[in-house]
Structure formats: structure tokens, C-alpha cells
Amino acid sequence: MSTASGSAQILDDLALAHALADLADAITLDRYQAQDLVIATKPDNTPVTDADRAVETAIREALATHRTSDGLVGEEFGSDKGSSGRYWVIDPIDGTKNFMRGVPTWATLIALVQVDAAGNEEVVVGIASAPALARRWAAAKDHGATVNEKKISVSKVSLLSDASISYSDFVGWGDRLEPFQKMLASAWRTRGIGDFWSHMLVAEGAVDVAIEPSLALWDMAALDIIVREAGGSFSNTAGQSGPFGGSGVSTNGVLHNQVIKELNP
Q1: What's the CA gap between 59 and 53, in Å, rounded?
Q2: What is the rounded distance in angstroms from the CA atom of residue 190 to the CA atom of residue 200?
Q3: Which of 21, 93, 183, 223 has its Cβ near the most Cβ atoms within 10 Å?
Q4: 129-143 burial, b if ≥16 CB within 10 A, otherwise e?
Q5: Which tens digits make up the pLDDT trace of 70-114?
Q6: β-pairing verdict for 164-167 and 209-212
């Protein structure tokens, strides 16, 4: 595939991702704060609503029509590898607990992962659509990142003592909790914003670092490329790049090595 045709394909994939996000937004906004919202508990004791399942079902049906050979990894209904060397990653509602309680910080996360001949995986398209916030972040490889179609970029803060750090909470940190809290104490500002929004604020340059100690691929894939295309870095807490390592650290890039070093004394 030539660079030009590859670029055209990626922009076509991004357009499809936007269409999938439109589908999702229509479902989630209709069910948000609905009196008859159906909530169940999954085997891992996390909540799931009828909206989560309806969104993933709608996206699966659309992809089965428009990308017949692509694989799909979804939070609610499992994985299908596909045959194209590409697979979509879907989190129908990131922030289900917020969605259930009427807190507007939740989003549908949609990403496309390309797998090369050597088996290396890279996210090439990502969307985080948060209709209750009236915000949609998007990125495609080598095409930059946007919020509501406006270009965004990370901050230039270079010292942790000047940095604003966002996180979810203090659960799931294990041995890294003490160094993490020590790092927070040394920062200029800290806020427990959590979920997708922490990382999108890094991409916008509003926050300098966002960290979560335990995440699944569908929580991170879309965020990874949006942060990177905005000029930042994304890894797990051990410093391995990408969204495949079970935890998520977004930074403006300048601070990344400092943050990883602080988390792993």
C-alpha cells in the first residue's frame, strides 16, 4: 500500500469511525438519565446498562456491513479476529458509573488497530465521543488530533513541580501507590477527574499528566492515538508504549520519562 493510498484509507476509516460515533451518540443520549434504564452486574462485579449493550450491538452491525473482513474487540460481547490484519476496539460507554448516576463525563471510545506482518500492533484511528459534554475528540495516524474538529496539542510544561496531574482514584495501585502519592504531593495541582476525560485534557494541553493503574485495551486504544497525535506520549505505568500494557499514562511527552521514573523508584 503506497503512502498516499494508505493515507486515503486511514481518512476513510476515520470518517467511518465518526459515523459509528454518531450512531452511538444517538443511543446514549436517548438513554442518559432515562427513568427506565436497565442496569445489570457483570461477572467481574462492574455495572452494565442496556445502553452499553445497545451501542456495541449497533456498532457491530455497522462494521459487519462496512468492514466485513476487519476484526472487532468489544467490552460487552468479546472478540472476533477478522482476516484483514486490522481490528476495531470498542468501549460502548467509558464511565458507565457516571452514566448511571447522571454525571455527564462518559464517552463512547472507538479505535482501529493495524497489525503488521511481524505482528506489531498500532492504533491508527481513534475517537472519544462525549455527547453529554458536547465534545468529540478524534485522531488518525499522521493527521493530528482534534476536539470538535479544532486542532489540539499538548502543553509544554517541563517540570513536575509545575505540572497538573489527573488520575481516577487510589484503588489498584499496589506497590506503586506510595511513589504515586509522593509524586502527586510534589506536583503543582492534582485532580481526580478519571476515565477518558483525564487523557483528553492532556491531549488538549489543559492537564499535563493523566494516570490510571488498571485499564483494559478498550479503555485506552482510542486515547492512545489522540494523545500521541496531539504531540504527547502514552504508555503503561512501567513505561511500555501503547495501550496494550494493562495501565495508562498520558503525558505531554516532555514529562513522560520523569513520570515513569517517579512511579518506578
Answers
A1: 10
A2: 16
A3: 223
A4: bbbbeebbbbbbbee
A5: 999 987 777 887 889 999 999 999 998 898 888 999 999 999 999
A6: parallel
